[in-house]
Structures are given as structure tokens and as C-alpha cells.
Amino acid sequence: MGGSSSLTFALPKGRILKQALPLLTRAGIDLRAVVANKGDRRLLFDLPGGIRALLVKPGDVPTYVEYGIADLGIAGGDTLAEDERDLYEPLDLGIGACRLVIAEPRGRPTPLRRGAHIRVATKYPRLALRYYRSRGVQAEIIPLLGSVELGPITGLSDHIVDLVESGETLRQNNLTEVVTILHVTSRLIVHPASLKLKHGTISRTISALREALALRELGASVTSP
Question: Is the pTM value of this prediction over 0.85?
Fold first, then answer.
């Protein structure tokens, strides 16, 4: 990575990037080239100020940072908690808020009793298993990569562990929340070696984002009734 003052950001495509744009812009990171052309399929952008941006799937951001391809990134707290990577997390950006919950079919409850055996469909096997074990429940974890709501509907599982924002998807699939395991927001993450080798540049970036967060909070408090 060298002693260069240039920085590489791994940014998540989609909803989280859209929410992060005002913060990044206020912190002096010019992303106009990224958002200017919605039909642009490029994934790597050279931005003003010696910044390079990689657009990747949200779940892949920590991998690019962990392997030192990117110096910094924006990743969801759910992914970070599930993967337990050795990364520095200096800021909670307060965006992408959602919850990791246990849900079950409405009208067909499976109580979380100590000693019970429950089949659980989830994209978060480590977090799910840890929670069930903490309750003394024997959980058979069934990993799924998508549409975990189908698990209870088809009889594959008794519960699901998944992210919810409004809960509308659960309602439409006749599922109801049992308990919240984790409140999730997106974090700024930094590669530990980058923090040492590019300490000045990264520290200034963190400070600029911290100031942007403070201004956002100040604006929210001013406009609130």
C-alpha cells in the first residue's frame, strides 16, 4: 500500500450508498463521477483528491478492506458481526438502520424453551447459533442465501433469522417477529495496516466524516418539532 496519501474506498452498491452520499459529500469526497450516469456499469472510479472508489456488493465490502485492496469501506453491522473480521471500526454512520430478528409463522409458534430443538433458516448462521445457544435452545441451522421467508412457509424451518426494516415482507408472508437479536447500522471500516501507513490521510478523513455526522445531527435537532 506504500506511504501514499491516496485512498481507496470500497463502497456498497444500492440503498446504503445512496444514504451515504450526503455524508461523504459533506466530508469532501466528490462522488459526482459515481452517480452522474445511472447507466454506467463501471465498478472502479478515480475521483478528485487522489481517491479511488470500488463499487461492490454490500456483503463484499469487508473482504476488500480486510485484504488491503481498499483502505476504507462502508459495511453493515450485521455483516461485521457475522464475519468477525480484524478491522478497525471508528464510526457508526447511522445509516441503513434495520434489525436482525427471529420470525416464525403467525399462528404456529415455536417457543424458545431451554432444551427445545428448532430448525432455523438464515443467512447469518454464526449470529443465529450464538443467540439460540445463549437461550439453551438446540438450533439446527439451515443456511440460505436468499428468500429465507420460504423456510417456514414450506416447512423447511420453524424460524428464520433475517434482517427487517419495516417488517412488510414478513407480514406479506404471514410471519411475525419473535425477538430482535441485533440493531444494525452501517459503519466506517478501516484496514489496520492502512491506518498505520496512511495515518494522516485516514485520520483527516475520519475527522471530516465525524464532523459531517455532527452537522447532520445538528440539522435533525433544528428541524425536529
Answer: yes
CA–CA separation, 92 and 214 (whole Å): 12
Same domain, 91 and 73: yes
Phi, psi (rounded to 5 degrees) for 94:
70, 20
Give dist(CA 99, CA 17) in Å, integer: 19
Contact 121, 225 (CB under 8 A): no
pLDDT in tens, 51-81: 999 999 999 999 999 999 999 999 999 999 9
- Domain extent, residue 120, equals 98-183
SS3 for 170-192, per residue?
HHHCCEEEEEEEEEECEEEEECH
Does the residue 34 lie in any domain?
yes
Q: Which set of grid coordinates corresponds to residue 154?
A: 414450506
**In this structure, are residues 160 and 140 in contact, taking their beta carbons and an 8 Å threshold?**
no
Give the strands of the sheet with 98-105, arranged side by side: 138-143, 117-122, 159-164, 98-105, 175-184
